[in-house]
Q: What sequence folds into this?
């Protein structure tokens, strides 16, 4: 990180100009979602009114409005009380956390052994494990569905918990192995000379140094489970076991009728807290990618 | 210690991958699940269809254009985020928002933003006098983003860029932070300006990690069809159909599992070659 010398105002203006451009591109849709979440139907479908303001139905005097006027909590009521939204949130959280745990339990030992394998073999296995990613989910989900049915997991949260690590383990193993490689072997060996077992040396010396890598892995894994759509759509058919990304659209798009305001409310309700957490992890996230992907 | 990972991947990626390859050389359908070997007939038949050819060229166009945009924008964004300035955490929070939105829901929101009648983007264009009778984009009152050949593709690409940019920026930023400070200081002392430092020093040094970002983008472009699936379902006609969505429509909605598998397999060799090249070059990087 370096501090820009703000001696030249033009430079500073340029910097904030670029920041404003990117912030607008990324966040304007979210801002629109937040406003739209409180809009009544009349306001939403009125193409003359500003989509970024609340427009009132033009009534005369004290006459009560014949439509649901903006801003309204009606859409949030629909989302929270007439769909299983809270269940979807819990399901997404549960699946996300379990997948993160499984990914870490499986990736860490694999990455560590890859990192300490010497010579070409270690490098090749590292590449091979990454190549697993190239097999598109579109190709896998039909056979996977059969396997899920065979295991008796269809229509349960466990179907996703079991399958999602296939999306995360390859990348996480690859990233962590880069991380572990960047930690000198001497550190562990010194700890082992001091009487630690290999496992203890790993836990006491390597793991604390690898925290940014683990954080990068956790964030990456959690994001993927939150985004995942095709498997969740195929494996789970009952509403009570759906996650946010499939549950919300299936309940709020009924035939041709879209409950737009509640749909975008759901998107914003998920995005904002998640983005807050990510923004606090930024520095460690970047450090995780730096050590894992660049220096490895 | 590699065993759990290997078993997991073999059981839940290797096995279904093999099943999919078997499917692609048989005549299996949803209705008739008996596996009769037909050789490469599925591939031969698919290649001849105009839908497939369109989907293939769309896929390549979509992938290349979106990756170019993502790389250019991610480099600019990473360059910005590698500096310290007041309000940086807020900027970062705003920028990461698309990546924190579940993609299916984010795309549904874009569906309305790009709506043929009610698009808020149309409204903005009209209110700054760019759209409507007698204006630059006129004479119609609506852009109909998702209903016109070029615009539909541009819309799909834009949403894809919107969603992947935060991840790509983090990866490029990780690269930028590894460039030793003294190299940049020396360049400044020698009188190199911003652009010269960017193009002559930073970009060459972080090129390997940029290629990792590209690889990721490609994988997510070919593997994750949510944007096209929700936004246009491949339409209008076949104008935004890409191989993953086409495989889904043929294989699942059309019920022809064998043809669907063959379509999905089509890009695998190409991706494999790209990935090996990228991973090899990235591992050779020695900059610190």
A:
């Amino acid at each position: 990180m370096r501090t820009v010398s703000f001696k030249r105002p033009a430079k500073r203006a340029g910097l904030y100009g670029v920041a404003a451009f990117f912030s607008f591109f990324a966040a304007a849709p979210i801002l629109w979602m937040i406003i739209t979440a409180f809009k009544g139907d009349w306001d939403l479908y009125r193409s003359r009114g500003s989509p970024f303001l609340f427009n009132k139905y033009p009534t005369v005097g004290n006459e009560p409005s014949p439509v649901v006027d903006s801003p309204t909590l009606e859409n949030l009521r629909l989302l929270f009380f007439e769909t299983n939204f809270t269940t979807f949130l819990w399901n997404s959280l549960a699946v996300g956390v379990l997948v993160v745990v499984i990914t870490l339990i499986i990736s860490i030992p694999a990455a560590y052994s890859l990192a300490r394998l010497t010579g070409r073999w270690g490098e090749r296995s590292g590449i091979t494990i990454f190549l697993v990613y190239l097999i598109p989910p579109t190709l896998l989900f039909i056979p996977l569905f059969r396997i899920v049915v065979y295991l008796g997991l269809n229509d349960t949260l466990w179907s996703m918990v079991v399958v999602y690590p296939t999306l995360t383990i390859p990348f996480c193993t690859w990233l962590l192995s880069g991380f572990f490689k960047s930690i000198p072997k001497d550190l562990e060996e010194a700890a082992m000379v001091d009487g630690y077992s290999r496992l203890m040396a790993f836990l006491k010396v390597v793991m604390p140094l690898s925290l940014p890598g683990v954080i990068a892995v956790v964030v990456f894994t959690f994001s993927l489970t939150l985004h995942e759509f095709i498997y969740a759509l195929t494996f789970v058919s009952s509403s009570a076991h759906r996650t946010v990304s499939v549950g919300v659209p299936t309940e709020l798009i009924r035939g041709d009728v879209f409950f737009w305001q509640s749909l975008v409310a759901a998107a914003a309700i998920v995005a904002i807290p998640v983005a807050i957490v990510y923004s606090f992890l930024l520095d460690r996230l970047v450090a995780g990618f730096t050590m894992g992907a660049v220096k490895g | 210690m590699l065993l759990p990972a290997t078993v997991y991947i073999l059981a839940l990626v290797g096995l279904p991958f093999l099943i999919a390859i078997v499917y692609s050389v048989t005549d299996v359908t949803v209705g008739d699940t008996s596996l009769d070997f037909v050789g490469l007939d599925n591939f031969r038949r698919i290649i001849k269809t105009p839908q497939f050819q369109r989907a293939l060229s769309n896929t390549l166009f979509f992938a290349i254009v979106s990756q170019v945009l993502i790389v250019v924008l991610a480099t600019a964004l990473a360059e910005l985020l590698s500096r310290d300035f007041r309000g940086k955490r807020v900027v970062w929070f705003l920028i990461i928002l698309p990546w924190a939105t579940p993609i299916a829901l984010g795309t549904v929101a874009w569906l309305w933003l790009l709506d043929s009648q009610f698009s808020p983007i149309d409204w903005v264009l009209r209110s700054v006098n760019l759209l409507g009778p007698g204006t630059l984009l006129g004479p119609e009152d609506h852009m109909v983003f998702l209903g016109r050949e070029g615009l539909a593709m541009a819309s799909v690409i834009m949403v894809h860029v919107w969603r992947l940019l935060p991840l790509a920026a983090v990866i490029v930023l990780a690269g930028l932070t590894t460039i030793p400070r003294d190299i940049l200081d020396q360049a400044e002392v020698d009188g190199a300006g911003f652009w010269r430092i960017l193009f002559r020093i930073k970009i060459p040094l972080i090129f390997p990690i940029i290629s990792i970002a590209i690889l990721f983008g490609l994988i997510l472009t070919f593997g994750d069809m949510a944007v096209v699936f929700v936004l246009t379902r491949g339409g209008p006609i076949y104008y935004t159909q890409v191989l993953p969505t086409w495989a889904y429509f043929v294989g699942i909605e059309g019920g022809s599992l064998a043809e669907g598998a063959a379509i999905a397999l089509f890009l695998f060799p190409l991706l494999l070659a790209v990935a090996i090249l990228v991973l090899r070059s990235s591992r050779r990087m020695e900059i610190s």
